[in-house]
Amino acid sequence: MDWFLHHWQTIVAFAIVAFPVAIFALRLTRPKKKSGCGGGCDCEGKKL
Amino acid sequence: MSDSGEHAPVPKVALAGHPNVGKTTLFNQLTGESRKVGNYPGVTVERTSATLYTPHGHQLELVDLPGSYSLSPNSPDEVVTRDVLLGDLKGESPPDLVICVVDAASLERHLYFVLQVMDAGFPVVLALNQVDRAEDKGLRINHQVLADELGIPVVACQATTGRGIVQLKQTLRFPFPPPTPRRWKGPGAVESGILKLADHLEEAGIARPTAHAVHLLADTSYRIDPQAHLPVGAQVEAREIASTCIAKSQPPEDAISQARFLSIRRTVRAAVTETRTESETFSDKLDRYALHRVWGWFILGGVMFLVFWSIFSFASIPMDLIEKAFGALAAGVGLLLPEGDLRGLITDGMIQGVGSVVIFLPQILLLFLFIGLLEGCGYMARAAFLMDKIMSRAGLTGKSFLPLLSGYACAIPGVMSTRTINSAKERLLTILILPWMSCSARLPVYLLLIPLLVTGSFAQTMMMSLMYFLGTGTALLAAWLLGKRIGRTEPAPQFLLELPPYRVPDFGYVGRHIMGRALAFLKKAGTIILGIVILLWALGSYPKAPEGEDQLSYSVVGRLGNLIEPLVRPLGWDGRLGAAMLTSFAAREVFNGSMAVSFAIGDGEGDNATVRQRIRQRIAGARKPDGSPLYPPLTIFSLLVFYIYALQCLPTTVVVKSETRSWRWALGQLAGMSLFAYLAALLVFQVGRLFGL
User: What is the ipTM score, two decimals?
Assistant: First the structure.
């Protein structure tokens, strides 16, 4: 209990830091949505 | 007429017309602010639509088509307009009615496009915009005669003031009238060719067969270039008919355009009276100076200087307020929480990190305000006209000016607005050099570092202008060099510009645009940047240093800095600057947050200085073991040069990939610009040192 009272700020800070870490990790690893119309409309051929 | 289009569940009305004719203002007047912005299927051309209710309560969908001079397209935007109006764009149903917006003062020139839209087989309403300008020019337009001659409703309006909007809505009575029959007649061979081709297309199940037949004969490239939605036989037959017409000395393109122009002249002669001979308008008088070969440049230079000077001067009051608010917030948290990691994270990490970015919101908004006002009042087109001479030396045209200028605000809309450039080579060159226009995200870095080099508002403005000049000059030089390697076989691009009259900007539109940018910036500061500064704080605070050791050197950031120090040392930087640069690779404005987090660690209480001042004090006060400055002016300048040239913006790279449809160009641009930035910073520092700076 004493240890927790002494280190509570570090624990909460770690929890806050873990939040963006988890979000960034999730964003990096989740499958990407394909852009465009879903194909079949010849848009792949319309290159710059 | 046998042509019939597919009908969407909610009737669709399209706004079409030349660029800069006031379509978007009219769109805003008709629909208010409830718009949906997306892309047309398969292409990266923006599609703006909104719901509109007629005075009789019918719900309609209003679509703002990309501005187009004709249905024979010259740019990706114009291709979309043609494909939508011919019903050729898959996933986008053709409209049920088209409102053609024309400039009343240049009626004859705009009517050609109107006839083309009518020929496409749609009911058309003509919105005669800028009637006040026509009146100023001494043109009296009899709307009723014009309507009778064209066979369509005509409404005089003034989109900027809302005049005629109610009358325009009243013409959208549902059900819509049938399309008006063609107003012109071509020579015999052409007319029989149209009939024959239309029969063929109807048999093949093509919607709007007559419209397609007319367009196949009127537009050579539509006849020759592969059109996936048309049966191959139709194009072959169109070519044969065209050959027959040519053999009879009636080339179909010339015959159709002549017939249309004859019809237009007849219409204009009947409906328009000139009450006085052409006299100089207010815009003409202003243009005598704004486009003058000497005064024009003085005015352009003056306007640009004024913009940047205002950004430095006027923004200081709201910036101080924001800074004080963040300072008070940090102090408040400091009073509530005892010393510890959580207090450090909130005050030194989150509040200082986010605050050091948000502080620049007033300057960014001022930049958007000026760009919006200059565009809205019509001066931007003059600037493009003047710049065309310089652009042409770099292998570009004045068409690239607006995307490049937008790049000063943000590279992303700049890259997207290159869609209006008809030459593929010019478009690619513009996209490749555009990130060297100093965008607003670079402002926080410039504004943090420039006061370390020079003092005083005038000197700082000059220094800031130098940053912009270096970026722009190098970009044009790069365009010239790249132009020699890319698309060598393409002909030199041509520039055609219609100068709009000077007018009072649409303040509502400018205001909404600025508000949108403010919200996007704050969202970014509150999400991505907040996340990054939290991580940076953690990387700078852990692992904990043993008693007596420097926390920063012991932390992950310190160790990372030490790791890359050999690489950045030749630029005059130390590991801390190197680490801050690395952390800002996804978004360059993170540099400030990173510096704030790095330098504020272990900060004592009672320091009333602002975040920026504290960062600058720390940078200026940092010393080497021998007592000399750790960051002399040459190091700061080398850092600035790096930030002028480095492409540190992940979203830009993604948009470049989407616009060029190639990772090769997007990643090549990222690698090339990063390498150039490193070499330029290296050159500056090493040459400066040779000169004993």
Answer: 0.75
